[in-house]
## 1
Amino acid sequence: MADTIILKVYRGDAEGGELHTYEVPKSPHMVVLDAIHHIQRNQEPSLACRWNCKAAKCGSCSAEINGMPRLMCKAQVDDYAGGEIIVTPMHTFPIIKDLVTDVSWNYRVSSKIPPLVPKPEYADKPFNLQQIDVDRVQEFRKCIECFLCQDVCHVLREHQRTDGFFGPRQMVKIASLEMHPMDNLNRREQLKNEGGVGFCNITKCCTEVCPEHIHITDNAIIPLKERVADDYFDPVQGLLRKIGIIKRERKQPLDSVPNEQTKIHRPV
Amino acid sequence: MEPYDLFEYDVLIIGAGGAGLRAAISAREAGCNVGVICKSLLGKAHTVMAEGGVAAALGNMTSLDGSKEPDNWQVHFVDTMKGGGFLNNWRTVEIFAKEAPERVLELEQYGAVFDRTPEGKIAQRPFGGHKYRRLNHVGDRTGLELIRTLQDKAVGVGMNVHMEVVLTKLLKEGDRVVGGFGYYRETGKLVVFRAKAIVMATGGWGRMFKYTSNSWEGTGDGLMMGYAAGAELLDLEMVQFHPTGMVWPPGMRGILVTEGVRGEGGILRNSKGERFMFNPDYTPALYKGQFAETPEEAARWLDDKKNNRRPPELLPRDVVARAIYREVEAGRGSEHGGVYLDVTHRGAAYIKRKLPSMYEQFHALGNVDITKEPMEVYPTIHYTMGGIRVTPEECASTVPGLFAAGEVAGGLHGANRLGGNSLSDIIVFGKRAGDAAAAFAKQTTLGNIDESQITEELALLMSPLVDKGGESPYAIHQDLQEEMQKNCMIARTEEGLNHALEAILSLQQRAKHLSIGGDRRFNPGWHAARDVRFMLRTSEIIVRCALQRKESRGAQWRLDYPKLDNEHWGKFNLVAWKNGEQAQIEARPLDPLPDRLQALVEEQK
Ligand SMILES: Cc1cc2nc3c(=O)[nH]c(=O)nc-3n(C[C@H](O)[C@H](O)[C@H](O)COP(=O)(O)OP(=O)(O)OC[C@H]3O[C@@H](n4cnc5c(N)ncnc54)[C@H](O)[C@@H]3O)c2cc1C
Ligand code: SF4
Ligand code: SF4
Ligand code: FES
């Protein structure tokens, strides 16, 4: 065969597994997902992986390549020229089979964050917003829910604190609402308590892996931490607010909107 | 029989793209208990890939032909009918054009954050066949904005989500649909849903072609489940070739290059450097005089849209796709068999702001810097205009209890869809289907499940794991793709189509004996075996319809019948339904435009 590449791919499930070695013909600008598809079509039709767009737009094909969380459809084989390519499933989430993991936790957490509630004066009216008012929020809304940031974050990966921390993806989501000029819900209590923004110690690993280049730490998490700190821990601000020198925007509490309990079902 | 999980809902929605999610919101708001099923994870449907924008006549921008009137539903109506070669259902188009603005503004209330104009309104960009700048957008990731907004809202109002579940059969009691049967991708175990009303929102089918912008999901399941349940299908010959798919590198072949590139001034050239869209032969009579006739005028249009006509690159998709095909056939193609699409004249900063995901797509995946060099493009299979025939107001199919909305439904787009009209289609008719299904559910009770219907489907589903020595579904899929690409693509002939039909019929025979290794747990090979059967039947009907329509209109271009035949074929839709084991196809007369709408068309001639 003219030009081939060697891939080691994890095959296994919750009981255990191992790396299998495959040889695949190389094509120009090939990505790792191309190689996985080639294996499925020609060698192992039962090799499990997720994908949809093949263009880095849907966030389905997340995996780890040589230990780094990446989208398989965006990882060029040439980046690893001469070296090994080892493809394993995301580590943080329970494995289902081969490269497929159970990411449903992310959807369950996300369902705790209520969508936008427009300010009363804009309810049912077109918004009047300048581009500069929305630039910041649009950065967060580029998120494709690949969950690579959740995968890399040590709070979830090493310490498994899924009970205490929503993770960087959901911080980005809350930031997109908290900084939306029209949102009328007070989201800070959720951030501080249930969301666990305090768990983040700003290692920036999440920002490094984000395929959408969202500045997760600098633009989302740090400003959110500051807002929570202002509200809960700054005695001067608290006093000034009390005597009315600083006027805080009055937003309605989170529990004023009904929580409709969407259920994310899983096969048993 | 093997045990299965059972769920019961007032309204069951099959598909979690924009149409399914919008239907879920309205069915829930009407007080129904709603279940939503999808083959992938939530938020990964085709809708997420849409780039250019959502068309709605909000009238935030000035016209493209100097007219003083702000944009309005009447112009959107005429543009859509013209784009569709007047095969569209006029009532569907009327509802669509009238309701799209309201649905887009509602998205903003749900949390969507569109790009803005200097006046603080939603920004709109030009697209092929639209007389106004009408595509409300967020850079070139509008679909992501739309699906995430609807997903978060639907989760907020409360629904039951079943991800990575594939339905393969609708279950009936008498005439009416009462549920659906399928399997969990993860475990391979079986699941049955009972529902008072069902909304089919499974999107389109492009995977039977070799080069397509569609993901693995586009295999026609919903269309074929509806067909098997007795629903009528409409206009299946009308499959859209998007003029600009990627051609290089090989792994990216078919991936979409948004029409937004041309909307932002992108220029098409052949290998001789000619801007071939100015060739007068390529502009159909219906559009003569409405587009710039010199490159100078087209260049002035970039900054002065009031006093100049739009460039011919913005003709409707079918027109541009045919022109590219002809250039390549005539030997004026690019290195890898496409043509060049160039936006470099807009400058790096502008391109990165307006087309960030295109910039990234070419940069990261094709090693091409679109701010410095042209892209190579060729038509790719993109969208299916035809689908389940539904009533305009209620999105009801011909089967009681079964509704359909979004790309799986037919009637709105006629022979060719205008860019941006699909994202507004899914929100307008997603809502209507959800409302109508909820109303239907309130009038009825749950039906009974007849297990014999499940047993039959189960045997088919399991056969590839049981049978030994059969073929791989991937091999059959590949042969089907080659055949469809060769003989049912842009330029069709009786001879080619007959060849395709024979090939499909013999592939159907081969597909009776499939084998696949491994077990039922997340086994893509096993899933492919069911998908390929759906695709073979869908392809058969596409080809049969294409054979019957002996004219050229919209996406259907017959080299042996190159003329538009308004006297005969312009008056008929092709309707298909299941008659025993055969697909029955009938030319059904179109409902003529009422005078008030005919007057609009005359006015805008
Ligand atoms: C790359 C690309 C770019 C596009 N750009 C634009 C654009 O700029 N403007 C525009 O207007 N349109 C655009 N379109 C078209 C538009 O995106 C689609 O037509 C539209 O999103 C279809 O929405 P839908 O809700 O009908 O279906 P989809 O979004 O396709 O969703 C279908 C759903 O059905 C589910 N499903 C399918 N089969 C089954 C089954 N058997 N069992 C269970 N679930 C099933 C799928 O899992 C999925 O959730 C684009 C399309 C593509 C592919
Ligand atoms: S910066 Fe915070 S959220 Fe991001 S990886 Fe580090 S700890 Fe996790
Ligand atoms: S923030 Fe970035 S890394 Fe995290 S889920 Fe979104 S796109 Fe992926
Ligand atoms: S397949 Fe969509 S991001 Fe990789």
Note: The two ends of chain B are 63 Å apart (CA to CA).
## 2
Amino acid sequence: MSVLARLRKIPFWSWVWFILGVLYFILPLYATLDFSLRMQRDTLGFRSYEKAFADPQFIKTFTYSITLAIATIIASIILIVPTAYWIRLRLPEARRIVEFITLLPFVIPAIILVFGLIRVYSAPFKIPFTDVVLLQSLTTFKFGTNILVVAGYMVLGLPYMYRSVDTGMRTVDVRTLTEAAQSLGANWLTIIVRVILPNLRAALLSGALLTFAIVVGEVVLASFLGVPAFGPYLFLLGQHRAYEPAALSFVTFLLTWVAMGIIQLVTGGQGQAAGAH
Amino acid sequence: MAFLEINNISKSFGKVEVVKDFKLQVERGEFVSFLGPSGCGKTTTLRIVAGFEPPSSGRIVVNGEDITNKPPNQRDVGMVFQAYALFPNMTVAGNIGFGLQVAKKSSAEIKKRVAEMLELIHMSDFGGRYPYQLSGGQQQRVALARALALSPQVLLLDEPLSALDAKIRVALRSEIRSIQRKLGITAVYVTHDQEEALSLSDRVVVMHNGEIEQVGTPFEIYNFPQTAFVANFVGTLNAVSAEVIDPASHTLRVEGMNIQAAQGLDGKQRGDKVMLAIRPERLSFESEGKKANLLDCTIENITFLGSIVRVQVLIGDSRLDMDTFNNPFLELPKIGDKVKITCSREAVLILNH
Ligand SMILES: Nc1ncnc2c1ncn2[C@@H]1O[C@H](COP(=O)(O)OP(=O)(O)OP(=O)(O)O)[C@@H](O)[C@H]1O
Ligand SMILES: [Mg+2]
């Protein structure tokens, strides 16, 4: 069947809803783009983009956020992959409670998370009933604060990361694969490195990209912990300037879309492969 | 001493005992099947042999060595799974060579062995393909080759054919058996398909509710089932209740008619109730007083099944199935006819419980 013939088979109302949906997403984006291109009166141009990119604060906050995002992704993978793996393998009964925990960030606003972090970690941690300090107050030095921010972002990214990893593990049936590898003499390290991780590539990538998108745009956590991140920068910029924030928003949008495209490319390829049975 | 010994294995999940005092001795090179209905503990027993589950009690011994406490990756036991479980990220050759790589064999040796294995499963041209590019039957053959590449002491197969369609199932089943014979490997095969178990195995272990009902050759299991469960589960069967008339002459009474068994009635007394079993193919229409037992009956139904014709008859209140070969030159009686059917004394089985 030709593509055209296939398209014709789609019912009329499906088309209507589809087009409405596309307009809903595209129009604001188009408006932002259009606005960002009109910094100079009566001509379309990239002036606002040039100005935005030229701001040293932009480079600084953007690289900082990207670094945070990468740290968050690595830490999340190290925490979540073994956890999800162990639950699939040995603790299926713990699954529901862990799933519940991973959904909490959807229910509890980030503002509560950040105040909790500040309350707990702004005082030095002592062994109870003594004055022996186990852990310095994390909010008082840069590296400590960075740890808090990354930990907070891990929580925010948890629903996405856990879900994609867990789904990935279900689709490849890690349990049976693990047993097959074991019966062929493989130890845990070999199994994880050569069997589990390679088969989770698509899942890890999609989890990582979603986490990336969250971290780069996040405002609340970053501003309350006072770190020079991209989210608060964009927010501030929005209060003083008109065109540059539009330009940067559009760039962020574009980045997210490129990320989605990469997910589609990687997982879509696999989906086709699986469908070939 | 047997090659694989499963000594008094029990396994409980929580309070439920799913395998109860399982005892089996498997000789070197033997092909043994576990046959039983869903949930009877076949997989659990197999997984205990593989080392994926620890037994609650009992020992597993292979070739004189107690492996009960060894982890699965040190047991030298190959496993084939129902869902194939090929590594999706590796090619066919990569899958087959995985165990050899883990064992740190030289790459020349791995290459040679993989080629041998591909030859064995008649898939020499498929080494570079990925699992998703293969049919189910091909995937399972690769899984078999992968398990055999390391020449394990024991090969375990858990319903390896049940995800395949009927034709491939039959073809692959004889292929598995011929490969097993060629390599002389000791194999334990789990299935709930009696035809598979009977056609493949040197011996069949019939399981029920976590217990062994009967162990024997396919011939023994089919022709001399010792319990009602085995008789019912393996093949079709007519079970009727009977009353002992004369223990000395092995005479029983069924629906008011006397019937004689070849099997002894040790320990039974006149008036005891027992269960009799007769296979449908052992019954036939009366012919010139050849056989010992003659039963009056009424034809209730006749079903044409191709090479055989299944006739349902009523004897008193009991319904019996009778299979006769389809013979185009022989006229069958009509429904409602009163006829005599007969069977030999040997065909009358007395079930233990
Ligand atoms: N990990 C487990 N936890 C709790 N119960 C289990 C577990 N594994 C198996 N069981 C129970 O043990 C019993 C036997 O299961 P098993 O898988 O051995 O059956 P089976 O004979 O292989 O059946 P099938 O033909 O359906 O594969 C079942 O009642 C099952 O519910
Ligand atoms: Mg099973």
Note: Residues 270-277 of chain A have pLDDT under 50 and may be disordered.
